[in-house]
Design brief:
By secondary structure, this protein is α/β, with parallel strands linked by helices. 38% of the residues lie in helices and 20% in strands. It folds into 2 domains: 2-97 and 151-250, Metallo-beta-lactamase, Chain A; 98-147 and 259-333, no CATH class. The chain has helices at residues 44-56, 73-76, 79-84, 102-108, 110-120, 128-145, 215-228, 246-271, 277-285, 297-316, and strands at 2-5, 8-13, 23-28, 34-37, 64-67, 88-91, 154-155, 161-164, 167-173, 182-186, 191-193, 234-236, 275-276, 320-325, 328-333. The protein has a 7-stranded mixed sheet. The chain has a 5-stranded mixed sheet with strand order 8-9-10-11-12, with no helix packed on it. The chain has a 3-stranded antiparallel sheet with strand order 13-15-14. Helix 1 links the parallel strand 4 and strand 5 (64-67). InterPro entries: Metallo-B-lactamas, RibonucZ/Hydroxyglut_hydro, Sec-metab_biosynth-thioest. Residues 22-239 form the Metallo-beta-lactamase domain.
């Protein structure tokens, strides 16, 4: 653990599995109450590291608040344990629109799982082996993540403020990665906690399969704001290292999405017919049409989400059209 700014402490949890991004835990220590930005996965190892950080700082959990940037299990997994010790949690209530979020859609319940598999073109009738495999894997993943049935929190909305340790943070909407993700901006100290909206190394997923939300467009607009309106900030992401050049990272992410859009558009033009989200994703990323093993199934759902987001974005820009038949969505180049 190290103090990166006065009263702001950072502990990073690394993982041996290269598919799991390291988690940055932040605590702003105050004289009365302290603030933790997100938690981590609900595992014994993560809990021991997180609780050790709190104890080393001499913080009483009854005087600890948690700001939840977004409701993914690697950010909320340990919230209930801290609440059981007396901590309070704050989150934007828009983030509870679980239907919008792909991860929750696949893990929430069997009906949502079947519906979302059908949207991308995976059905019991047409692709039984893939369908059965994903139903099995998502059930297994839900159980292993130990996700609480319903997270309790105190609603906090964009524009409201939280003050701790000499800092006064404004809640800022960072829509894109999820529907209601928020960050914390300190205008005087020029600091910003950005959740999963911005990070080095990888391109964050816009994780939705719901139509007409324009989530990738929202994400790109948000990134543009980070690059221009908040360009002089010290950015603190929840994964990977500090962001030293915000323009470089924003451009890398946006170009990454636009490049994939161009490839997907070419896939549709070459096909000359309407394709499902899964078909486009397979051809774009070079994956097999068959079911993956358990270690890689999550990357398939991420590919579907990224493909779906790109399709919605290109439809909004007038490059492709969308149709629906029996709950399956099809895309075709114009």
């Amino acid at each position: 653990m190290r103090e990166i700014k006065k009263n702001i402490f950072l502990e990073t949890i690394p993982y041996e599995n290269r598919h799991i991004s390291p988690r940055n835990l932040y605590i702003i220590r105050g004289e009365d109450r302290s603030l933790m930005v997100d938690t981590s996965n609900n595992t014994e190892r993560d809990w021991n590291i997180l609780k050790g950080m709190i104890d080393a700082l001499g913080i009483d959990c009854k005087k600890l608040d948690i700001f939840i940037t977004h409701e993914h299990p690697d950010h909320t997994g340990l919230v209930p344990k801290l609440q059981a010790l007396g901590a309070r949690a704050f989150m934007n209530p828009d983030e509870t629109r679980k239907r919008v979020d792909l991860l929750h859609s696949y893990l929430a319940d069997e009906h949502a799982r079947i519906e979302n598999l059908r949207i991308v073109g995976v059905t019991k009738e047409e692709t039984p082996e893939v369908f059965d495999t994903f139903m099995e894997y998502t059930t297994k993943a839900y159980q292993s993540m130990k996700i609480p049935p319903e997270l309790s929190f105190i609603p906090i909305r964009p524009g409201e403020t939280l003050s701790y340790g000499g800092y006064c943070f404004e809640v800022v909407l960072l829509k894109g990665h999820t529907f209601g993700q928020c960050g914390l901006y300190e205008p005087q100290k020029k600091l910003m906690f950005v959740g999963d909206q911005l990070m080095t190394t990888i391109v964050p997923i816009v994780g939705t399969q719901e139509t007409d939300l324009g989530m990738l467009k929202c994400y790109m607009n948000s990134l543009g704001e980070l690059k221009h309106k908040y360009k002089d900030c010290y950015f603190l992401p929840c994964h990977y290292g500090e962001i030293k050049d915000v323009e470089k990272e924003v451009n890398r992410i946006i170009y990454g999405y636009l490049e994939k859009c161009e490839i997907m558009k070419h896939v549709l033009e070459e096909a000359g017919t309407a394709l499902t989200t899964r078909d486009i994703g397979v051809r774009t990323y070079g994956r097999s049409q068959g079911p993956p093993d358990y270690a890689h199934f999550a990357s398939c759902t991420q590919i579907w989400a990224k493909t779906f987001s790109c399709m919605e974005y290109m439809m909004g820009e007038g490059f492709i059209e969308r149709s629906e038949r029996d709950g399956i969505i099809y895309w075709k180049a114009l």
